[in-house]
Specification:
heterohexamer; A: mainly alpha; 15 helices; B: alpha+beta; 3 helices; binds adenosine monophosphate; binds sodium ion
C-alpha cells in the first residue's frame, strides 16, 4: 500500500491537484477562467463516455458485467437510505436529504481519476463500469427529492398551514424535478457520449482517439488543478458552517461505502478492476450533478453543508488517500 | 426642457435570479407584456445563503436581469417574481429612470 | 449632512448597445468630454427585434455601457446615441445618483 | 446512397450534432460556454485555412483548380441574384436582400464537415477549394448591401423625405460596409491561415499537424454538439416568425443551388471531390460571416428570418441529409 | 398603495473596483454588516487612468459590485471604500431604490 | 543572419503573430475570447514548467547550469538598477520604478518563442534555463517596490504631510506586496509545474507529452495571434502617452540588455543555447507578472507607460527581430 500511495502522489495529475490546493490555501490569485473549467468538465464527460461506449461495443455485456451493474444499483439505493437514517437526527431534514443524495450519487472526476490510476497500474476494467456510473447518478437524487417532499408536507401540517399551499409555490412538481434530473447537462452528455461511443465502436474510437485519449491526461491534470483551487476556496468560505459531525461523516462515509461495495464485489466475484471502480463510485460524492438538481428541487437545503462536504472533504480524500487505499485493500483481499 | 419630449419616465427593475428559474421568469415577463429586458450572465454573489463557490462547476450561478417598464407594470412583475426570490434566493430592486426615446 | 461634502449629484446613464457601434460611441463620448465609463460585455437581451441567439457564434451581441456624468452632459450624450439606438437597436436609461468623491 | 447516408449517421461527428439537437429539443440545461464555442470556430477556421494553404503549396493551381475557382465565382454571383428575384415579391425587400446574401455566401462548418465526409470515403479534393470558399464569402454580401441601399433610397423618396436625410444616419457609408466585410474576423482569419499555410508549406504543416489535424475531429464533434444545441434553441425562439414559404426556401434552395453547382462542375470537368465541395459551398448558407456584416449594413432586416433560415434549417439539412445526398448523386453521375 | 407593504426604500450602491482589492472590500463589507452583494466580473472601463487593454492577459481588470443596503449603512460603506478608489482607481455611485421584500 | 531572420519569418508561429498585428492594425473585429487567451497563457506556463522540470530531472544541475543561474541573478539585479538610473531623470519616479521592474523581469512568451526557435535550428538548451527564468521574475519587482516606497516617503516629507499618514492608506505594507509577488498566479504556476516536472521526471513527461508537447506549437501560434491583436490595440490606445524617449528605451534597451547578458554568458563559458536564452531573458520585458504586482504595489505608475513599452514595443521587437538577431550574433561570436 505504501508503494501505491507514493506512486499515486508522484502522478503529475495528482500533483497538479495538490498544487491547486496549495495555491488556493496561500490565497494566490491563480485562477482558471470559469468557461475553461466548464469546458474541461464537458470534455472529461465526453471522453469517459466515448471510451466506455467503445469498450462496451468491443466486449458486450458479459454475466460479470450484469453483476457489476446490479452491484451499482444496490449501492445506489443502499447508500442514500442508510445515509439519511444516520443524518436525520443530527442535521435538519432538508440538509439530510441533500447529503444523502450527494453520497448516494457519484463523482465523475473521482471515477476518471481512479480509471487512470488503474491504467497506470496496468489493471483492466470493463466499459460497463461507465454504464454503472450512469446508473448510479440518479436514484439517490430521486429518493432525496421524495424524502424532501415528505418533510415539506409534514412541516406544512405542523405549521397548520393548508397543505395545499405549498403547491402554489413555483418549481415544486415532481414531474418537473424528474425532467431536470434526466435532462441535466452533465448527466445527459455522459449518456449521449456513451451511446455514440457504443454505436460508432472501433471506427469511431479511432477517429476520436487523438482528442479523447492522447491529450486526456493533460486536460485531467489542468482540471484537477482547478479542482484543487476550488477545494481550498470552498473550505475557506464554508469553515464556519461545518460541524465536526458533518466533517467526520464526509471523511468516514467514503470508507464505509467503499467497504460495503467491496463486500458486494467480492460476493459477485467481480474482477479486481471492476471491484475497485465500484468501490470508488460508492465512496465518491457528487458535487456537480446532484447540486445542479438539489439547488432547484430542495432549495431549503444549504449548499454550505452538502456541497462543501462533497467538494471540500470527500473529493480530496478520495483523490489523494482513498483511491490508493481501496487499491491496496483489493490487492490484499483479491490477492 | 427638451428632455421632456425625448424621454419618458419609466421604472427600472433589476433582479438577481437563480439560473434555474430565469427562463421561466423570462417567459412570464412575456405574458405580462414586458417589451424587453437585458440579462447579465453569471454574476457572483453573497446573500443570506452565503457565498457561492460552485460557479466554475456551473452550479449556484446567478444572473442579473435588468428591465425598464411602465409604472403600472411594476406590481404585476414584482408579484410574479416574489415567490421565486423567496424559494430560490435572489433579490429585486425597483428605481426611477428616464427612458431615452429612440 | 456629511454626505454633502463627500459626494456630488450626477446623472447615471446606462445603454445597451450593439457590438458594432460601441467603439464608435466610445470615441464620440471622448469628444463630448465624458470622463469615464464602464462596459459590461456580452449581455443577452430581448427587445423589439426578438430574442437573440447567435451569441455563442459571436453575432447579435450587445454590450452594456454605464457612465456617470454631469447634468449638462446628459442631453449631448443622449442626442448622440439616439440615432444608433434607432438604427441598430438597444436602449438608454438615465437616472439620478450620488457620485462618491474619492 | 442509403449506404452513405447511414455511414454519415454513424460518424461520431454527426452523431454529436444530432445529440445536440436532441438535448436542445428536450430543453436540457446542457451548455457550452460561449467563449469555448467561439474558440472552436476560430480553431476550425485556422485548421481549414492551414490545410488548404499547405495543399495549395504542394500542388499549385492547375487548370482544373482555376476552373473550380471560376465555378465558385459564378455561383457566388448567381445564387444571390436569383435568390433575391425569388424572394423580393414574397418577403420585405430588406429581408430578401439579407437572405440572398446568406444563401449566396457559404458556411465554413458545412464545408469542413463535407471535407471530413470525403476523407472518410477516401475521396480526394484540392486545397484550392478552400480558396474557392474564401472567394464565395463576400460577393453576395456586397450585392445584398447594394440592393438594400437601393431599396432604402427608393423608400426615402416614396416617403417624400429628402433622400439626403438617410445619409446623416450613422453607419451607412458603402466604404464602411466594405471595410467591415473585408476585415470581418472570421473572413480575415481564414484568409490569414490560408496564406500562412501556403507560405510555410510542408514544413509548417508538419509543425502544426498535431494541433490542426490530429485533434481536429474531436473539436469538430464538440463544436457540432454546440451547433446542435443552437439549432434547437433557434428553432424554438423563432418559430412564430417563420412562414411556410420561408421554411420551404430554406430546405429546397440548398438542393437547387447544389444542382446548379453540379451542372457547372460537370461542364468544367471537375474531379468528384472538388465537384462535391462546390455543391456543398453553393448549397450552404452563412450564419456567421453574413450576419456579422448584415446586422450592421442592413439593420432593417430581421435576424429572425435570415439567421433562422441559415442556422435553423439549411445548416442541419446539409449536415444530415445534404452531404450524403450530394455525394450519392455525384457517385451516380460521375460514375 | 400596495407597494408600501411589499417593498422598502433602500440605497443602491454600485462600485467599479480593481481586481486586487475586491476581496478585501468584500471582507470589510461583511464586518460592516452588509447583508448581501452581487459582483459582475471583468468589466472594461475608461477613467482617469486611460483605457485598459491588458484585460485578456488578466491585468488591469475591474469588477462591478452592486449592493442594496439601509440608508444608515451608506456612509460607513462609502467611507470604507473611498481610500481604495483613491489609490487603485474606480468609482462609486449611490442611488435610491425600492427593495422588493421576498 | 539574413537566413535566420527569414527563417524566423516563415515560421507559422511567428506569422500568426504578424497576422495578428495586421488584423489589429486594420481594426478587424477579430477577437480571441479573454477566457481563451488566459487559458493559453496558463497552458504555456504549465508546458514550459513541465518541460524544464523534466529536463532538469534528466541532467541535474551541472557546473555550467550553476553558472547560467548565476548569470541570470546578476542580470536580474543589474538591469533594473541601471534602468532606473537611466530613467529617473527623464520620467516621473513611479513610472521609472515600474519600467525598471518591467525590464528587469522577463517575458515567458518571449522565452518560449526563443526555445522553439532554438529547437527549429537544432540547438540544445538546458532545463535549468527555466529555473533561470523563474529566478529572474521577482528580484526586479522587489527592488522597484522598495524604490517606490522610498520615493513615496520622500514625497510625503516634501509635501510636509506627516510621513506616517501614508501608512493608513490601504495596500501599502511591504509584507503584503511580497505575498502578492510570491503568490502571483503566473509565477506560482510556473514554479509548480517546474517542480511537478522535476518530481515526476521521465515517466511524468511521457504521460503529459501529447498535451504539453505535441499540440504546443499550435497553441503558441494561437496565443501569438492574440498577442499580435493586443499589441496593435495597445499601440493605438496609448499612442499619445508615449514619448520618443520612452519608445527609444523600449527598442534599444533589449539590445543593451542582451549584449550585457551575452558578455556574462561568454565570460562564464555557457554553451550557445543557454547563452541565447539568457540574452532573451535579459532582453525581454514583463507584461503579465510585473504589471500584476505593480498595479497593486505602485498604483501611482501609469500602465500607459510601463505596460505599453513592454507589450507594445519590446515584445514584438524581440519576437520578430530580436530572437533571430541574438541567434545570429551568438553564431558569429561562439563560432
Ligand atoms: N443586499 C443585496 N445587494 C445586492 N445583491 C444581493 C443582496 N442580497 C442578495 N443579493 C444577491 O442575491 C443572491 C441570492 O441572495 P440570497 O437568496 O439572499 O442568498 C446573492 O448571491 C446576491 O447575488
Ligand atoms: N425595456 C427594456 N429593458 C431592458 N433592456 C431592453 C429593453 N428593451 C430593449 N432592451 C435591450 O436592448 C436590446 C435591443 O433592443 P431592441 O432594439 O428593441 O431589439 C435588447 O436585446 C435588450 O438587451
Ligand atoms: N464616470 C464614470 N462612469 C462610469 N465608470 C467610470 C467612470 N469613471 C471611472 N469609471 C470606471 O472606473 C475605472 C477606473 O477609473 P479611474 O480610476 O478613473 O481610471 C474605469 O476603468 C471605469 O471602469
Ligand atoms: Na457515492
Ligand atoms: Na451558398
Ligand atoms: Na528582462
Amino acid at each position: 500500500m505504501e508503494f501505491s500511495l507514493l506512486k499515486n502522489l508522484i502522478d503529475p495529475v495528482i500533483l497538479f491537484f495538490v498544487f491547486g490546493v496549495f495555491a488556493g490555501a496561500i490565497r494566490s490569485n491563480l485562477e482558471i477562467p470559469p468557461a475553461i473549467a466548464k469546458f474541461f468538465s464537458l470534455y472529461l464527460l465526453i471522453a469517459i463516455g466515448l471510451k466506455g461506449g467503445a469498450a462496451l461495443a468491443a466486449t458486450g455485456l458479459s454475466q460479470t458485467a450484469w453483476l457489476a451493474l446490479l452491484g451499482a444499483l444496490i449501492m445506489a439505493a443502499l447508500v442514500p437510505a442508510y445515509s439519511f437514517l444516520i443524518l436525520r437526527s443530527r442535521i435538519n431534514p432538508y440538509d439530510a436529504a441533500a447529503v444523502a443524495a450527494t453520497y448516494g450519487s457519484v463523482s465523475a472526476v473521482t471515477f476518471i481519476t481512479a480509471q487512470q490510476f488503474l491504467s497506470r497500474n496496468d489493471l483492466d476494467f470493463g466499459g460497463h463500469m461507465t454504464v454503472a456510473m450512469v446508473l448510479m447518478e440518479s436514484p439517490a437524487i430521486i429518493m432525496a427529492v421524495l424524502l424532501a417532499s415528505l418533510v415539506r408536507s409534514q412541516e406544512a401540517k405542523r405549521t397548520s398551514l393548508a397543505a395545499g399551499a405549498t403547491h402554489t409555490e413555483p418549481g415544486l412538481s415532481l414531474k418537473k424535478v424528474l425532467h431536470e434530473a434526466f435532462t441535466d447537462g452533465a448527466h445527459l452528455l455522459l449518456i449521449g457520449s456513451l451511446v455514440i461511443g457504443f454505436v460508432t465502436g472501433a471506427e469511431g474510437k479511432k477517429i476520436m482517439e487523438p482528442f479523447v485519449v492522447d491529450i486526456f491526461k493533460g486536460i485531467l491534470a489542468f482540471f484537477l488543478l482547478e479542482m484543487g483551487l476550488l477545494v481550498a476556496r470552498q473550505l475557506r468560505e464554508s469553515r464556519k458552517g461545518i460541524s465536526l459531525f458533518v466533517m467526520g461523516f464526509a471523511l468516514v462515509m467514503p470508507l464505509v461505502n467503499a467497504a460495503v461495495a467491496m463486500g458486494f464485489a467480492w460476493l459477485f466475484g467481480l474482477p479486481k478492476g471492476d471491484a475497485m471502480l465500484l468501490m470508488v463510485l460508492a465512496a465518491s460524492a457528487s458535487y456537480i450533478v446532484v447540486p445542479a438538481i438539489v439547488r432547484y428541487a430542495i432549495p431549503e437545503a444549504r449548499p454550505g453543508i452538502y456541497f462543501t462536504m462533497a467538494l471540500g472533504f470527500t473529493f480530496p480524500f478520495n483523490i489523494v488517500v482513498g483511491i490508493p487505499l481501496y487499491f491496496a485493500t483489493i490487492g490484499l483481499i483479491w490477492g | 426642457m427638451n428632455a421632456v419630449m425625448t424621454s419618458k419616465p419609466v421604472k427600472r427593475i433589476e433582479m438577481v435570479l437563480n439560473q434555474d428559474v430565469i427562463e421561466e421568469i423570462a417567459q412570464k415577463l412575456d405574458t405580462l407584456g414586458v417589451s424587453g429586458y437585458t440579462v447579465i450572465r453569471e454574476v457572483l454573489g453573497r446573500g443570506e445563503r452565503g457565498l457561492r463557490s460552485g460557479v466554475s462547476l456551473g452550479v449556484f450561478q446567478y444572473h442579473l436581469l435588468l428591465l425598464a417598464c411602465e409604472d403600472v407594470q411594476v406590481e404585476p412583475i414584482t408579484e410574479m417574481v416574489r415567490p421565486y426570490l423567496k424559494r430560490f434566493g435572489g433579490m429585486c430592486l425597483v428605481s426611477d429612470a428616464q427612458w431615452v426615446i429612440r
